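Project standup — Tuesday

K.O.: blocked on the structure for the chain from last sprint. Re-posting the sequence here as requested.
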Amino acid sequence: MSRVCTSCTRRLDESEFPTQNGRVVNVCVLCRNDIKRAQTRLAPIRRDPEQIRLNNICCTWFGPVQRTHLLRNAA
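H.V.: unblocked you, prediction finished:
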């Protein structure tokens, strides 16, 4: 029998929905994994002196990036 996920509104089998305290949860495994992945903090990025040097050379050659026009949404 198929169920509908409340998060993504997909029709999936019962096996795609995890149980919690003996009850079936209304959010599918795929959505729960996406939610957990979005909530975890990313590891800090280490500074790479070579990349910083290359970025600085690029800025002196081409100039800094200018945002003369704003990105517009179609909505």
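K.O.: great, moving the ticket to review. Strands lie at 2-4, 11-13, 19-20, 23-24. Residues 63 and 69 are 17 Å apart (CA to CA).
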